[in-house]
Amino acid sequence: MNYKESKKIWGLIRDSKRILLTLHSSPDPDSAGSALSLYYFLKKLGKEVEVVSFDNVHENLLFAKPSPIKVIEDVSKFDFSKYDLYISTDTQQPGLLSPFRVEIKFPKKLKIVVIDHHPTNLKFGTINLVDSGRVATAEIIYELLKNWEMEIPKIMATYILSGIIGDSGGFRFPGTSARTFEIVSELTKLGADKDMIMFRQYNNNDFGVLKYWGLILRKMKIDRKNKFTYYAINYEEFKKYADYASSSTSGTDVFMNSVLGTNFGIGMTEKKKGWLSVSLRSRTGIDVSKIARALGVGGGGHVFAAGAKFKMPYEEAVEKVLLVAREMSNAKNS
Amino acid sequence: MNYKESKKIWGLIRDSKRILLTLHSSPDPDSAGSALSLYYFLKKLGKEVEVVSFDNVHENLLFAKPSPIKVIEDVSKFDFSKYDLYISTDTQQPGLLSPFRVEIKFPKKLKIVVIDHHPTNLKFGTINLVDSGRVATAEIIYELLKNWEMEIPKIMATYILSGIIGDSGGFRFPGTSARTFEIVSELTKLGADKDMIMFRQYNNNDFGVLKYWGLILRKMKIDRKNKFTYYAINYEEFKKYADYASSSTSGTDVFMNSVLGTNFGIGMTEKKKGWLSVSLRSRTGIDVSKIARALGVGGGGHVFAAGAKFKMPYEEAVEKVLLVAREMSNAKNS
């Protein structure tokens, strides 16, 4: 499809010399894939390009070595004024560039192009191409390259495919469309290395991650009356697996929306003493973001995946979550 | 692509009145999807068609109700002479029609069309279309319908897609090709209900299945020197979960080829007192069928997935498997 923004974005790229690309915090395959495919494209055009991440980047996301990504810890000290153009990909708002939610003021003369698929994007760019009908931002990048009639070499095809595989849950999530599969077929023909990407994303877990999944399954309970599953892991238990528990494939995603007869699943983890992190996953489309919001400030998310974090002694916090979940679940039933 | 067998198969269908379709034992989505998509096609042509399974069929595989599949327990008493044509799909050899490995003699006058993607197919048909380059037999059915310039209504598209999703591991296995994605895109446009299929295959586990997975992970060990993971479950432990342990998504498939730093994984389960069932999954392409074959009569399979079953007291049997695995692993290293 042809985006009406294509021409304007092309104009800004053509007129720029120094271009900045970024990853969002906790970079995932779509964040890295979108920025890196654009990086190779812009380099080919002869531009000066930098890709910056204000958070650590897992090596599973880096196919070409050495990686062109610069990791810079403190976004507040970063000099945006060096660039003519900033292309922000897969990032809903500037506050999500860094894990520390630093507010950012861009220089007035900096042109900004925002390319994203999150419906909640704040559209902070000079030009905003936000298409929430796409399963991945990388899919939008592909369409732009086609709009501009550009060739897509193997490394770019691989990064675009990696973004699509990441955000579509390996093609399993509902947002994966007929057009997605068409694009994936074309990328595969262009030499995108699907098997390598799949291997890195699904066959590359530390042994500790599986042992942590075992703990989750051991603690998992089912509330058949209110139709949800849940687990709760306290700080002492969590500590043993802390190195693995933030793995890219979390146990919550693997297990909590998969049980017959339930509407949703809740993962509760005391990741910091006295603070409970709550992850919610819907199985049947019941809106779990309502439960997350009811848990207090900072709770929210999407219909299918939401979360919250709050301060309260562990046992009490777990009781509170179950109480809210049961109330919301009954409200839905009545 | 155009199969050279297309025209001959079409001729046999045209000249037949009564046609038989079958599922293989332990029917999976590709077996059901291939047979049922053909069923709706042949009905539309005005043929008398029967679909028979000599094993129970999981309701997750049945999208249209009532199901046209007849379940018949004893294949040895089945009268094949009632039919003019038998189209066998996704079945390597007649012995695999029933879980009891009954030898079958077909009537001489029965015409047989074999359509399959297993490289080890015995080609027992009058016409044999065996394309091992396809991730699923359902993909071959799609190509045939295109060769014959047939319309594919929604229910047929859904069954074909279900077969492809099943045998490609939800598009994750290496055999999934650019052509596969192209076909999937076309099937989605034809109304195939991808999300419903995914939901049934991946979000529909009994709670007991997850608890069984928990047991597997709790027992799972890693042999870092010889680079494999393994678990062993004795009959007393297995008994508690027997209802769930033969679920379509087995724990072996989910976990045993996923650990960083290993070449393969071994699942050992004493499913019957004194008998050890061994499942092997390769992570890096090391040929696990060699280990399966070394375990004795009946052991075998493919490079990435193999199995064996033998009679021996539990502790001794587990020791034997580990010994063979270590030997084969060292042989590979040296």
TrEMBL record, chains A, B:
Domain (DHHA1) ranges: 270-324
Any one Pfam family match given in the protein's UniProt record, by short name: DHH
Domain of life (superkingdom): Bacteria
Domain DDH: from-to ranges: 18-164
One Gene Ontology molecular-function label: nucleic acid binding
Protein name: DDH domain-containing protein
Lineage, top ranks: Bacteria, Candidatus Woeseibacteriota
